[in-house]
Amino acid sequence: MGVRLGRVAWACPAVLLLLLQLAGASHVVYETSLLETEAAAATVPASIFELSTGYHFRPQKNWINDPNAPLYYKGWYHLFFQYNPKGAVWGNIVWAHSVSRDLINWVALETALAPSIDADKYGCWSGSATIMPDGTPVIMYTGVSRPDVNYEVQNVAFPKNSSDPLLREWVKPAHNPVIVPEGGINATQFRDPTTAWYADGHWRILVGALSGASRGVAYVYRSRDFRRWTRVRKPLHSAPTGMWECPDFYPVTVDGKESGVDTSVVSSSRVKHVLKNSLDLRRYDYYTVGTYDRLKERYVPDNPAGDKHHLRYDYGNFYASKTFYDPSKRRRILWGWANESDTAVDDVAKGWAGIQAIPRKVWLDPSGRQLMQWPVEEVEALRGKKPVSLKDRVVKRGEHVEVTGLQTAQADVEVSFEVPSLEGAEALDPALANDAQKLCGVKGADVEGGVGPFGLWVLASSKLEERTAVFFRVFKAAGNVNSTKPLVLMCSDPTKASLNKNLYHPTFAGFVDIDMAKGKISLRSLIDRSVVESFGAGGRTCILSRVYPSLAIGRNAHLHVFNNGKADIKVSRLTAWEMKKPALMNGA
Ligand SMILES: *[C@@H]1O[C@H](CO)[C@@H](O)[C@H](O)[C@H]1NC(C)=O
Ligand SMILES: *[C@@H]1O[C@H](CO)[C@@H](O)[C@H](O)[C@H]1NC(C)=O
Ligand SMILES: *[C@@H]1O[C@H](CO)[C@@H](O)[C@H](O)[C@H]1NC(C)=O
Ligand SMILES: *[C@@H]1O[C@H](CO)[C@@H](O)[C@H](O)[C@H]1NC(C)=O
């Protein structure tokens, strides 16, 4: 057992406030694991401990997965998440709970929800929070009430004391479950209620489901009192993608601004809607932008092919995401889970598995075609005071330029590239025009191109045996698509990330919807030891990779700009900051 702060101390928010202001309060320790891991630790390289993330959200120990019910209440950000209090692999899931003033420093509180009633006896799975008109939050979550078939029902929980800004205790009313899988719904595939929205005297939520063998479905349930819920016969939307987990449905403004709005803003002239689903089979999140008709309770994506050619928040390791509206800064914030890509043995040895991506602000691109995402501004408070810069540096064919003068195992890098000419851009194989990931697999960072590949080598060892490439590659407008614009691919190529060849290091890629005629494109990478979280073209395309170098660790991690294209490119500006650890990260 570790040291724990007594409950008496936790009972006073002023103490917590003080804690959040104190740097290095390392004695704040949360529920310690029961699992002892020395045996496993003996068999894994010591370097894996150097790979523990510094500023991405995670508890001190154990397994985490989906972010749940993020919300803002009385000056505090709350994040709940799926958590195994007993080990670094999935199991024994409860809702862990952490709070923050700034989305960066976090304090772990007591478990918020654990199996305790018939309606959640075998599991408290994912769910969402809704802020009621009187300002208090309600959680709706999936409970597993029968173990034999994972029978899934939807439950509610209320704060025991809504005067407590930390919302430490939650009460499950006796009328749970409030929704059961009736009317032909497959009870083992029926979960993850959304935040509710309110209009015309009714609350609505979505529940993710599977219809038949392969249709992903988002069912609408309506209620006047948040207690008796009735299913709308036809789902809000569905597609032949397999089970839809963790649906998320929210409005985004069409005014070209970056501000967000509350879920209940449904007036159709001001907003478009976003429907996101997590694909259980393929393990990624995709979304469409479209129109919500609240009278018919239907949603129609603007792009008829949107359920086939998937736009993703992130083309890497990013799943079960969820947004919430932050009224304090009028923005919508996205949380997403990034799992490990090492082995379960490594996870047990290091004692933890899973992080949350840096929370991202999301808004609709002025084109209306897609979302934009950017790390919340608060993360910039972790930047060191002495950034290193490059300016107007031409990088020639085959050249790479090291960025020196700072440690880059934990860093934030922003770079703007100028591409003087698109003349030499290579032609695109039409067979790969719709498959960025495959294209990147064929045209990796070391395959010379016309314009690109150019970008960053991050977490590179001194002799470059190890390096993770994050880059762009520009193709000529392809004959089989109507666009006359060059096609831009953004790619994360970790195939050389580690000398340890037993790891899962797939290439990840997405296309970037940007007009390269202006000859400019930007990249930002948040590097955090075993995380490379990158934002292309101001947040049009994002890729989070988990990588596990064996040499490029700590002070031995280097950063370079590279160009493996025939055409010169120019770094008009690069700025790199060392990133500090937050003073408080759940005791980790
Ligand atoms: C409710 O929370 C407030 C604020 O933390 C506290 O002052 C009050 O004593 C709490 N009430 C109960 C019944 O615990
Ligand atoms: C429910 O879904 C599970 C898992 O996909 C499947 O094995 C089962 O056959 C389905 N049950 C029915 C009644 O369709
Ligand atoms: C997590 O990691 C494994 C690789 O170890 C991957 O295959 C899996 O799909 C990942 N993602 C999720 C959401 O589970
Ligand atoms: C090209 O545009 C035409 C006319 O708008 C359309 O019918 C066709 O489907 C488009 N082709 C592709 C590959 O998008």
Automatic annotation (TrEMBL):
Signal sequence residues: 1-25
Keyword Glycoprotein: yes
GO annotation (BP), single: carbohydrate metabolic process
Gene Ontology MF term list: fructan beta-(2,1)-fructosidase activity
Membrane-traversing stretches: none
Reaction catalysis annotation: Hydrolysis of terminal, non-reducing (2->1)-linked beta-D-fructofuranose residues in fructans
The Glycosyl hydrolase family 32 N-terminal domain, residue ranges: 56-375
UniProt EC number: 3.2.1.153
One family name in Pfam for this protein: Glyco_hydro_32N
Key words, A-Z: Disulfide bond, Glycoprotein, Glycosidase, Hydrolase, Signal
Glycosyl hydrolase family 32 C-terminal domain: residues covered: 378-578
Entry similarity comment: Belongs to the glycosyl hydrolase 32 family.
Protein name as annotated: fructan beta-(2,1)-fructosidase
Species annotation: Lolium multiflorum (Italian ryegrass)
Lineage: Eukaryota, Viridiplantae, Streptophyta, Embryophyta, Tracheophyta
